Amino acid sequence: MRRTAFMAAMVAMFHPAALQASSPPSSVASASKQRLVILSDIEADPDDTQSFVRLFLYANQIDLEGLVATTSVHMKQAVHADSIRSVIDAYGKVQPNLNLHEPGYPSAGRLHALVREGQPAYGMAAVGEGRDTAGSRLIVQAIEKDDPRPLWISVWGGANSLAQALYSLRATRSAEDVARLVSRLRVYTISDQDDSGAWIRRNFPALFYIVSPGGYGAGTWTGIHSRIEGIDNSVIDNDWLRDNIQQGHGPLGAAYPDVSYGMEGDTPAYLSLLPNGLSDPDHPDWGGWGGRYEFYVPAAAATDPNGFTGGVPIEQETRPIWTNATDAVAPLTRNATGRAVAPAERSIRDFRATLWRWRTDFQNDFAARMDWAIKAYKDANHPPKVQLAHPDRMTVKAGQRFFLSGLGTTDPDGDSLSYYWLHYPEVGGWASAIPSGIAPNIVTVDFTAPMVKERREAHFILSVTDKGTPPVTRYRRVIVTIEP
């Protein structure tokens, strides 16, 4: 198509009779903060401290309601709330500077007031009548809080503080009240690090629960630090962490410990709650920085049953859970000349790919925010403001050519922007790739809807990356309904 004809089509593309905005509007771009309680076996492994350092850089984008020190199979008889407080102290020294870049960072005093201790004992042996702790009572209070938003429980170690809260609710409330309160909960656990997770899932079958049960080799969360042949692994290297996080980035960066087992294995438990335009937390099957998950009963044989668990028994799941999904990802390659980016010829199909496909983006975002801890606004990089030139839901007819556009996107630092559009075939109802009719790395692209015999949905992702240092990426998702 000649450029003049293409531009004419762009001008007219948002008003064809067959292209209709859906109603009501999608929740994809919802600005509501997620409520979050953290359960952490901090000091069992340095990665909990690493995850707290990153978390506090996003403390203005999440409503933190509890920071509970717990045990796990890796640390059965101690909790270390003081270690959480130490990271908060380091955060407090940079919090005023963080607020220069984005408003709303809570004071260190506000975060200190959220710290609690769970039982300094292991698993279900520490759950029962008279076993309430400051940590479990905080969880009950958060569940009962008069707030219409869901409450996320992010479990980085053992889950027995949550088990105790649910035990106490069941012992003191009617069955109807328990069902109502449980419906408010959303749980993401990093595998099962004590025997209480399986108990919770059996006894509260309606509870929204994300987990990769079984051996850690089956954990989607391992995609945050797995070295994958064929992709850029430099952003998880120790030298990268030294240069971008630990050294020369103030007291919070200095509090980030060296990797001992795996970098930030707990961080995926909250990554998809960050409002970057990509994920919808109530739809784990849509995918996001924390990975993608589907709702089914996994076979025990598929959960790495002979892999490392620290000794936690592996049980056959008794009901559907949100668990491992698989994506096929062709990593983007960056070219010295010609088209700036293009997908590699080889796709990598793996459950961990649902997470590592975004890893360069979320690591660069981490590095940019760590700069905020020490730099003036003018000297740091900030995320682009992604806009769509059309609704984020639309309806088209089978065989119809339609346009998607990020016209109107801006960058607060005036940086040049790169665009990339992709169809996410594992999400929605059309599993075959829908390629762009033109280069996918321009602001406005066209697609042709496939021929369908019944209504289907297709998800399209716009990634916008600025050319600041480090580059920062934001997204928008467009859900297209295709009618026969």
Strands, count: 19
What's the number of structural domains?
A: 2
Reported CATH architecture of the largest domain = Alpha-Beta Complex
Largest sheet: 6 strands, parallel
- Overall structural class, as computed from helix and strand content, comes to alpha/beta
Helix-residue proportion: 10-25%
- Output the CATH class name of the largest domain: Alpha Beta
User: What is the CATH T-level topology of the largest domain?
Assistant: Inosine-uridine Nucleoside N-ribohydrolase, Chain A
Spatial ordering of strands, largest sheet = 4-3-2-5-6-7
The CATH superfamily of the largest domain turns out to be Ribonucleoside hydrolase-like
Distance between the termini: 27 Å
Average the pLDDT over all residues and give the rounded result: 94
- The general outline is globular
Number of helical elements: 13
- Strand portion, in percent? 15-25%
Rounded radius of gyration (Å): 23 Å
Uncertain segments: 1-8, 14-30
